[in-house]
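A quick aside before the break. I want you to see a complete sequence-to-structure record at least once, exactly as it would be stored in a machine-readable document. Don't worry about memorizing anything.
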Amino acid sequence: MKPSEELTIRLIESINKVRDCENRPFNLAISGGNSPVNLFNLWSGKYKDEIDWTNLRIFWVDERCVPHNSPESNYGIAKTLLLDKVPVNPDNVFPIDGEKDPLKEALRYENQFFKYVEKGKGFDMVILGIGDDGHTSSIFPGQTELLKTERIYLESVNPYTNQRRVALTANGILRANDIAFYLSGDQKRSVMEKISTEKIITLYPSAYIIKKSKNAFIFWDKHQSI
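That is the input. The structure line, written in tokens, reads:
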């Protein structure tokens, strides 16, 4: 079984456990970029009827400051590949508004987080990717404020393009009950070697999360896509 399917089964079991034991929806935060495409295809295809969409709230880890109809929008990609194909309740889908000022939008989205997540806790599951430079969420190398702040969401800036973003902070990630890194493709080998051997954990944000967390797991489809 591929890691993408292992992660999907873990998600299904976790949704059902929260539903049966706590009688509430499952709070899931998903990422953008290319990594989740394999997952979206699985969730809208092979496992569509096994996921309890009625007991799932979907949030975003991060978003670029672009309109939802932009090809760069994390929400837009998820809508096309997943949300339009599954019976999720639209009222349980919470996109980040990329057209608003990211400072104000980060605060609004953080307040929304506290509306649905019990005080002192975090998302039930956060699914993250890892960039070739070791970034995760939209926390890039050198952005120590996003690693150290008590805030849940903050503005971020892509240092290569100066594009503004809204990002789930390290504090927001580390609060999660389950932290899953999903990677696709053999090209991730180089960055995985870097973050696994680096001793200065703040150098690579993904390494910081992995080493600070007791509940982070890596699911890596090394060779094949769905």
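Two observations worth writing down. The chain has a mean pLDDT of 95. The chain has eight helices and eight strands. We'll return to this after the break.
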